[in-house]
Amino acid sequence: MQNENLANWLPRLAPHGGPRFLQIADALQAAMVDGSLKPGDRLPPQRQLAEQLNVDLTTITRAYDEARRRNLLEGRGARGTYVAAPKVELTSILDLSMNTPPPPDGVDFDDMLKQGLSQVLMRADNELLMTYHLAGGSDSDRKAGAQWLAPMFGPLDAREVLVCPGAQAAIAALILALTKPGDIILAEPASYPGLRAAATQFGRRIIAVDADQHGMVPDMLEAACRQHQPGLVFLNPTLQNPTAITIPERRRKELADIARRCNVRIVEDDPYWLLAEAPPPPIATFAPQQVYYIATLSKCLTPGLRVAFVLIRDPHERERFLAALRSFALMVAPLTAALATQWIVDGSAGGLMAGVRKEARLRHRMARDILAGRYSGAGDGLHVWLELPAYWTPAQLARAADSAGIAVTPAEAFATGGASVNAIRISLGSIKDRGRLQAGLQRLSQLLARGPESFSAAVV
């Protein structure tokens, strides 16, 4: 590209427009979209561009690195840096099946990861990061957990907070600690699949308790407790997976009262509380001795951390839980636990979560617009529970969607018993690019409108 054409794409760096290197990378991407830059155009040397924009060389280096990460640029050795040809997308699957946090706009996750790990390695004894630790987390990790749970509970005694390698490990350990083979676990008719997987593996049986538009029905729970004498009750009360229902405060109190009267323990798996708009207090605030509270970072920050916090008030019950956890997961990986603690303490975790929450709400608005009258989400969280028209079954639609290059999760994946539900879950975070998410939702909307009679799989 000739120097006289630089003005066609050079950004005007805004003082409050976010990191400068991201502004430059965004300007490159915008110029490729509007045609100011074309595949094969040569970009100026980094030092020259730094002088042109009056920034330091490091900023330009980071901008070019970010542009390469987005597949916008390619290096050709001594010949320089060039605008890349569009990358051919070899995989056509648009994944609406996996509940992961969406990538937040304006958050440089790579830089956040590098900075966090740098701080951990600078402040921690590296030998301690690479050796065995007792289950439950270090004192600093537990204090970070108490800080993370403070929006839900206020100030906590850090000794009551245990650190686990993810919510699934916490659920499995609670099943082992609180129940015995053959025991019954009560859950809603559609519930987190990981519960069913763990219960089946350990020889426990799940019985569904009826739910309505406000979650598990209190009278039905009390009747089931008296009939079955369950080992525990499993609830996911905020933006429930998969139905996206949030149990209102009054009903949470009723469920807590039943747990006390029937002397039954509740596992409150609450991964989406911090993503919700003004959520009610956790059930554990109303029955602290009956309820075991789980909050994972996987749904608010990133699954790769594999860190969850479990609040257990009774010291004897904490020891039972840790003994069960140690039988299959000795500890959280010390390095990732230290990184989670660093991010919580320095505020990076809160900033990332705020970005995830903002991005998730934007994506819900997109889903509401595209799915029109079929959308029944809560407007926040990571997923939508989409009830289907009568002419589709969940399995039929999942197969048709797969043939159309879309992955969704049918209701059967969440069933714990009771009447079948004609619905699918759509996850809004697993597709990084909003444009591809929009394309997936539009394809799905077209499938819903056409019906199965117009769908036929190709035969080859």
TrEMBL record:
GO terms for molecular function: transaminase activity. The keyword Transcription applies. It comes from the Bacteria. Keywords: Aminotransferase, DNA-binding, Pyridoxal phosphate, Transcription, Transcription regulation, Transferase. Signal peptide: none annotated. InterPro entries: Aminotransferase_I/II_large, HTH_trans_reg/aminotransferase, PyrdxlP-dep_Trfase, PyrdxlP-dep_Trfase_major, Tscrpt_reg_HTH_GntR, WH-like_DNA-bd_sf, WH_DNA-bd_sf. Residues 18-86 form the HTH gntR-type domain. Pfam families: Aminotran_1_2, GntR. In the C-terminal section; belongs to the class-I pyridoxal-phosphate-dependent aminotransferase family. This is Aminotransferase class I/II-fold pyridoxal phosphate-dependent enzyme. It comes from Duganella margarita.
